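EI: anyone free to look at a 178-residue chain?
SC: sure, send it
EI:
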Amino acid sequence: MEENKEKVKKEVEIETVSVDNVEQSEQTITENKQTAIIAELNAKIAELNDKYLRVAAELENTRRRASLDVESVSRNRAMGVAEKILPVMDAVNAALKHNPDDEGIKSMQHALENAFAQIGIVKIESVGEQLNPQYHNAIQIVDKPTPETKTNTIVEELQIGYMFGDTVLRTAMVIVSK
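SC: here you go
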């Protein structure tokens, strides 16, 4: 039996570790952690930058919308006031037709026209123009006053039409040739 014991030899491998290998392993682990942290921080920076750009764009859009809203409210208010003043201008024009030499009425008409010009209200030109349903409301159709008059030409204006910028406040009531 003793012979058998000698014959069986167990081999055991022993791993040798040197201090240099441990230091290199720790350094590699530390570098890997640093690289991971840097990558994570770069991703966070990119995310925050994206959020910042989105918030800045949203703020700019909000400012633009607020500016347009203020402009719209101002424009609507001016149009409302203008629509209330149009009957006054109509009354002055009617008075001037009945008494064309009255200096007081001429002065009132001139003052109202200047106020309209300052606000941005313009008279729609009608007599001699072709009928345009966007600007004119034909109340009556008459025979051509002269042979040179074209069909659908406005021959008389019964009520003046006005525009505020590019918006029609009131269409002109007109008489048109056939």
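EI: The first strand starts at residue 121 and ends at 123.
SC: 👍
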